[in-house]
Design brief:
By secondary structure, the protein is α+β, with helices and mostly antiparallel strands. It has a domain at 71-140: RNA polymerase subunit, RPB6/omega (Eukaryotic RPB6 RNA polymerase subunit, Alpha-Beta Complex), CATH 3.90.940.10. It has three helices and four strands, in the order ββααββα. The strands form two sheets. It has a two-stranded antiparallel ribbon with strand order 1-2. The protein has a two-stranded antiparallel sheet with strand order 3-4. A hairpin with a 5-residue loop joins strand 3 and strand 4. Helix 1 (74-89) crosses helix 2. The chain is elongated, with a radius of gyration of 22 Å. The chain starts with 36 loop residues before the first strand and ends with a helix.
């Protein structure tokens, strides 16, 4: 499960009318077309140079939480709660013994979070591409 930290970048998907959600026109697709690049002399360069992409660096987890607060945020908890309750509603086996007073999958998922029974790691990202995978039992 990947949960983006609030510093993560958002991408806008194009709509069916050709505009993106931000209101600008969506870029044209170049399926199967050969892309050439014009250089300053006016000639076309048949092989455009590849630019080095930003490398994403994983921050080593040595027992400390480097990115974000040391506790599970309410947004992370809500995302985990919603995903786990959907899994339970679709027939996934619970990780804890079911209490007789638990009737719905949301309260069962909440009790699993409180019991540290979920084998989930949270990936907290920064806008520069750095991230850290944190086990949920460190945050609860």
């Amino acid at each position: 499960m990947e949960i983006a930290y609030p510093g993560a970048l958002l991408e806008f998907m194009p709509r069916s009318d050709g505009k993106s959600v931000s209101g600008k026109a969506a870029p044209k697709k170049t399926a199967g077309k050969k892309i050439t690049k014009k250089v300053a002399s006016g000639k076309t360069d048949p092989k455009p140079k590849k630019t080095a992409g930003k490398s994403k660096k994983a921050i080593k987890q040595v027992g400390t939480i480097k990115i974000g607060p040391p506790k599970l945020t309410r947004f992370e908890k809500a995302r985990i709660l919603g995903a786990r309750s959907l899994q339970l509603a679709l027939g996934a086996p619970p990780f804890i013994t079911i209490d007789p007073n638990i009737k719905d999958p949301i309260s069962l998922a909440l009790s699993e979070i409180d019991a540290n029974a979920l084998p989930i790691s949270i990936r907290r990202k920064l806008s520069n591409g750095n991230y850290q995978d944190i086990a949920i039992d460190w945050l609860v």
